[in-house]
User: What shape does this take?
Amino acid sequence: MAARGNHSRRGSGGGAAAIKIILLLCVVLVMVAAGSTLFSGRESPVAESAAPVTPTPPAEPVDNLVTSPDTQPSAPALTPNAEPSPHPSADAPRPPAGTAAAVGADIAVPASGAVDDGYFADAVFVGNSRTQGLQMYGGVTGTTFWTKVGLTVSSAATDRFVVLNNQWLTVSEALAQASYNKVYIMLGMNELGWVYESVYKDDYGKLIDVIQSTHPDATIYVQSIIPVSHWKETSDSDNGTYTNANVIRLQTVLVELCKEKGVNYVNVAEVMQDTDGCLFPEATQDGTHLTAEYCKIWMDYLRTHTVQ
Assistant: This one.
């Protein structure tokens, strides 16, 4: 009996040892698996720290890019087969008869050697929004400009828009206080709808009288009215006001006035019109006002048409 008891205890102890070995193997397997997970976890931060890739935005369409300082409304585009007008030059041939430039061509200041901008340092320019364009884009510096949108030969004598000596003055009042050796005038676009061209001539004459009385030694340059584009004069939006027929009508009495007053007539229109007498289509975006390029052409014309 005693022998059986001892055998039983030995068998029970062997089973416990086997269980311990199995448990130990399980622990080892768990540790191996955990070590593998920890190892792979040390690699993941490297991938997360990589800089994110930013997608490249699509290129902006060319049509949306700003290519010109001009902000004037656009006129209808030229037809695809239209040829660009030849670049005007100071020695252009005589303008076609019946056009704005043909009026007064016989008395106009002829082409001369180009002067530098110093010539205009003692000059004053009087005009409407077209002359404002010349001031902004013509490229001349150190010159005085008295301009106002909508200015006419009548309102030049009544509207106080000239700032001089800390005062708001009319053109006539300013001329009485200032001193200039040259006076350039361009007025007429806002008067195209006037019924009586004689009123235009009389009021323009009064302005010239003031200049001659306040500046008896100054050189006076009366500039021709620049024509309007074909699109402008054939549109119905202005009730037939802005037409080249009206330009010629006022230009005719303006030339007569220059002859009577003995002042210089500068035929700017001859480098602004096509063979039909219309303002070059590429010279304007609204049919009346000039683009920056043509304001420079205008100023170049004045530089090469002076009284020597």
